[in-house]
Amino acid sequence: MTAAAELLPGLPSRPIEPESYLSDGFTLRSWLLTHDHKRIAILYFASISAFFFIGGAAATVIRLHLIDPAGSLVSADTYNRLFTMHGVIMVWFFLIPSIPTTLGNFVIPMMIGAHDLAFPRLNLTSWYLFVTGGLLTLYAVLAGGLDTGWTFYTPFSTAYSNGHVVIALLGIFVAGFSSILTGLNFIVTIHRLRAPGMTWYRMPVFLWSLYSTSVILMLATPVLAITLALTAVERLLHVGIFDPALGGDPLLFQHLFWFYSHPAVYIMILPGMGVVSEIIPCFARKPIFGYRFIVWASVSIAVIGFLVWGHHMFVAGESVFSALVFSLLSFAVAVPSAIKVFNWTATLHGGWITFEAPMLYALGFIGLFTTGGLTGLFVATLAFDVHATDTYFVIAHFHYIMVGGMVTAYFAGLHYWWPKITGRLYSEWWAQGAAILIFFGFNLTFFPQFILGYLGMPRRYHAYPPEFQAWNILSSAGASILAVAYVLPIFYLGWSLFRGERAGPNPWGATGLEWQTPSPPPTENFAETPTVRRGPYQYEPEPVPQNA
Amino acid sequence: MPDVVASAAAPPEPQFASLRQQSEVASIGIWAFLATEVLFFGGMLLAYAVFRKAYPLGFAEAGRETKIVIGTINTMVLLTSSVTMAGAVYAAEGGRRRLLTLLLILTAALGLAFVGLKGLEYSKEYEEHLVPGIDFAFASPHANAIQLFFFLYFMMTGVHAVHLTIGIIVVLVMAVRAGRGAFSPAYHSPVEVTGLYWHFVDLVWIFLYPLIYLNGRVG
Amino acid sequence: MPGLPVLPPTASNHAVELNWLFAGLLGTTGAVLLLVFWLMLLFCVRYRRGSAAVRPSPSQKSWHWEVTWTAATFVAFLALYFWGADFFLRLRRAPAGATEIFVVGKQWMWKAEHPGGQREIDTLHLPVNRPVRLVMTSQDVIHDFFVPAFRVKQDVLPGRYEDLWFTPTEVGTFPLFCAEFCGTEHAHMGGEVIIMEPAAFSDWLEAERPSGSLAEQGAALFRQYGCSGCHGPNSTVHAPPLEGLYGRPVPLQSGAVVMADEAYLRDSILQPQAQIAAGYPAVMPSFAGQIGEEDLMKLIAYIKSLAPRAAGRS
C-alpha cells in the first residue's frame, strides 16, 4: 500500500510529492495569499503551535515557582501576570481554534467530497484576524502583561488592575471575529457542499461534531465580543456599568462573560470528541456503536451547553433559585457526554484492535476525559461546589478535560491525519512512547491538584501554606515530564517531514472520502466529485486466526 | 428601449458546482451571519434591560432627554430605505438595470441621511454634557442611572451606526456593479444578500427606537 | 517537608455532612470510572487484532443498551443533584438566633465586628457549638471568604451584602483564605478563625470590649449624621419610622413590596431615591460617599436593635 521512496544515500529527500497542494507554489506570497483550505490549515497550525508553546512556557514557570510555598522564584505581580497570560493564550489562541482551524479546515472539505470550503477568501481573512488578535495580545503580554486572570472579573479589571488590559481585550475581540467567521464557513459548507449521496446520516461523526461546534462559535462568541467591548469602555471611561460605586453591577459582567465562556468549553471539547469518534472505529475495525445517539449527543451538548453558565457563579452572589436551576441543567449536560463514553467503549467490543499512536491517544482521551467529566459532577453538586469552587479542585477538573481531553484528542487527530497532510509516516515507536509519557506526566501533574483543592488550596495563589507543599512538588514533577513529552513530537514529527517513509493514500485502511485521495492531496482535492453510496465506518469483519 | 439585461453571468467559483449552489450558499451564509448579529446586539439589550429594571425612574428621566424629533425622522428615513432596498432586489430579479442602480443609490443616500442626522444628534448631546466619560454632567439624584442610560445609548446606536455605514459602503459598491451590468435575473445574489443585511440593520433600529426615545414619554 | 495530608479538618456542622456527600460522589463516580476502565482494558485485551476471541455479529438492537445506560446515569445524577441541592438550601438559610458578625473585606485584609463592638483584623474569634452568621461586604473589589475546615465559602462584593452561616464543632485554629483573585497580595489575604470554649470566648470578648456595642456605636452615628432629625420621635418631617422596621415587609411607591433586610437598609441610606416607601415624600438625601462600610454596619446594627414604637404615634 505504501510506496517507499527511492532515496539516494546521503541526499536529503524533498518532503514534497510532485503535484500536491504543497508543491502548488513555493513563494511566501503563495502561502500568505492562498485560498486553499489545506494551506490555510497549515498557516493556522504554525500560529497555534507557537501560542501553545508560549502558553506552555508560562505554565512551566508557574509550576517551577510553586515548588516553594513562599513563592520565591518570581514576584507576586509577575506570577499574577503569568497565570493570566497562560489562561488568555491557552483559551483563546490555542484551545478554541486548534482542532477546528487546523484539522477541521484541512479535513472537512475532503470528508464531504468538496473542492474547498464555501468561502475560501473568508477563511484566509479568518486567519489574518486570528493572527492580528494574537499579535495584539502578545504585545499586551510583552509590554508588561496584565493580572486580571483570563476571566477579567470587574471591578478589579476595570478600576483596580494596572496592566495592559484594554489592548488584551482588543486582541481577544479581534480574534473572536476569526472564530465567528470560521464557524459560519463550516456551517454553510456542511449544509450545502456535501457530495451527492452524502446525506446527513451518512456524514462521519467528525462533521457532526464540527457542525455543533460551529453553531456555538457563531452564537456565543458575539456575546463575548460585546462583553469585552463594554469592559474596555468601562475601563477607559468609568461610566459605571460594572462598578457598584456608580450604580453598576459586577454580576452583570459575570453573567455576560460566562454566557460565552461556558459554551466555549464545548467549542473546545466537541471537536476532540469528533476526532476520537473517527479513530476508534478505524483502529477497532468496526462501525461506531450507536451512530445516531452519538450525533444527537453532540447536538444536545451544544444546545444544553448554552443553559448552564450560572454554575460558575454558585457562590458569586446569584440567587438560590438560579443556582438550583443551573445545577440541574449542569447534571443534564453530563448525560450526552456519558452516552458518548459508553458508545466508544462499546465500539471496542468485538473489534480487531491495534494500538498505533492515534489509538493510544484516543484511548487516553476516553480515560482522562471521563475522569475530568465525572469530577464535573462534583462541582455541579451545589453544596460540594461551595467548598471546591475557586480551589485547585476546579483547576484539576478543567485541565483533565482541556489538556487530558482536548489536547490529547488534538494530538490523536494530528497523528491520524499526518500522513494525509504531509504525505509522510512518522515513527510509530517514538509516537507511542510520547503518548505514554504524556499520559503518565499528565496524571502526575493534575491528580494531586484534586487533593490540593479539597484540602482548600485556593486558585491564583503565588504563595501557599507549607502543608500543601508535598502535593505541589508532585504536581511540578509531573509538569516537567509533561513538558518534555509535549516537546518530543516536534522532533519525531519534524524528522518525518524529511526522512519519513512516504505515505500512500490510506495507510490506516480507514473509511472516509479524505482517504480516497493521494497523500498529500492535490489542490483541488478530487479530480471528480465522488458519489457516496454508503454510510460511514463500513469496516469489514476480519477472519479470526485458527491458531491463537 | 429595454434595460432588461440578460447578460451572461460570471461562472461560479471553483468550489461550487453551479451558480444555483453558489446563490444558496450565499443565502445561508448571510442568514447565519445575521444570527450572530442578533447575539451581538442582544448582549447590549440585556444590559439595557437589567439597568432599566434596576433604575426605572432614572432611565425614564434620561429617556426624556433624548432627541425624539431627530429619532423619529431617522426612523422614517431608515424604513423608507428598506422600501427602496426591497425595490432594488425586485428590480434585480427582473433584470432592470437602471431601476436597480437608481434604487441602490437612493438606499445609500437615505442611509447617509440617517448617519448625518445621527451625527447632528450626537453633537447636540455633546453640547448638553450627555456624553459619559466626556464631561458628563446632569443635575439629578438619578445622575448615575442617567449616565448608564446614555452610555448604553451611545454604545447601541454607535454600534448600529457602524453597521449602517458598512451597509452604505456595500450598497454603493453594489450600485457601481449594477450600473456596469453585473447583475441579471440569473445572477443577483449579492443584491439579495445586501438586502437581507440592510433589512436587519433596519430591524435593529426598530427595536432601539422605543427603548431609547419612548422611554419615560409614554405610559 | 510536611507530610501528605489528604483531607481537611472537619470542624463545622456543614463539614460533617459534606464529608458524606464527598464520599457519595466519590463512590458513584468511582464506580462508573472503574467500570469504564475495566471494560476498556478487557476489550482491548480480548479483542486485540490477532486474538482468537469470538467476535459477536454486530448487534442490531443497540438502542436497548443506549436507553439503559442513559437512564441509569441520569437517575444516579439526579440523586446526587437532589442531595446537593437540599444541602445547599440549608447552607443558605441561617437559623434564627445565630450570632451576627459583620465582615468587611478589602485589599488585602479582613475586618470583623462582633455585636458587642469588638473588632478584629485577619482573625475571627468564635465560640464552639454556637451558630454564627457572617454578613459581609467589600470595600473595593470582589473577594471571597473561605474556611476549608468549615466547608463554607462566599464571594464578597462591593456595594452589596452577602452572608454565610455555620456552627463550629471543634475547638482550634483554622485557616481563612481569600478565594477570589483580588490583586497583588491575594495570596496573603488570609487569616485565622479561632474557635474557643465558651468560657474562654467570654473572657476574650470582655478583654476586647470597646466602649460601646455595635448597636450603641450605631446610635451615636445615627445622631452624628443627622438621621434622627427626620427619623427621630420628635421630627416634624414625615419620614418612615425605623422602629421594628428590620425584618418586616415594606410597601413601596411603585406598588412592589420588599423585605427590610440589611441590603434594604444599606440601599436606603446610600440610594434613597431608588426605592421610595409608599406614602412618603422622596426627600431623603443620599449619604453615598459620606459613610464608610464599617459605620454603615454600625448604623444597621442600631436600626436592627430598635423595638417597635408604642402605638399612637405616627
Instruction: Round the mean pLDDT of chain B to the nearest integer and report it.
Output: 92
Count, helices of chain B:
6
Tell me the span between the first and last alpha carbons of chain B. Answer: 56 Å
- The fold-level CATH name of chain A is Cytochrome C Oxidase, Chain A
H-E string of chain A: HHHHHHHHHHHHHHHH
The tally of structural domains of chain A comes to 1
Helix percentage of chain B: over 70%
* Overall strand count of chain B: 0
**Strand-residue proportion of chain A:** under 5%
Task: Provide an overview of this structure.
- Chain A is mainly α and 548 residues long.
- Chain A has one domain: Cytochrome C Oxidase, Chain A, CATH 1.20.210.
- Chain A is built from 16 helices and no strands.
- In chain A, helix 5 (120-142) runs antiparallel to helix 7 and helix 12 (357-380) runs antiparallel to helix 14.
- Chain A is globular and about 65 Å long.
- Chain B has a single domain, classed as Cytochrome c oxidase, subunit III, four-helix bundle (Four Helix Bundle (Hemerythrin (Met), subunit A)), CATH 1.20.120.
- Chain B is built from six helices and no strands.
- Chain B has helices spanning 19-54, 56-63, 68-93, 97-127, 143-179, 189-213.
- In chain B, helix 3 (68-93) runs antiparallel to helix 6.
- With 314 residues, chain C is an alpha+beta fold.
- Chain C has two domains: 8-38 and 66-210, Cupredoxins -  blue copper proteins (Immunoglobulin-like); 214-305, Cytochrome c-like domain (Cytochrome Bc1 Complex, Chain D, domain 2, Orthogonal Bundle), CATH 1.10.760.10.
- Chain C has seven helices and twelve strands.
- Chain C has helices spanning 13-46, 62-92, 198-207, 214-224, 227-231, 262-270, 293-305; strands at residues 99-106, 109-113, 119-121, 123-127, 132-138, 143-147, 152-156, 162-166, 172-178, 191-196, 249-251, 257-259.
- The radius of gyration of chain C is 27 Å and the shape is elongated.
- The mean pLDDT of chain C is 90.
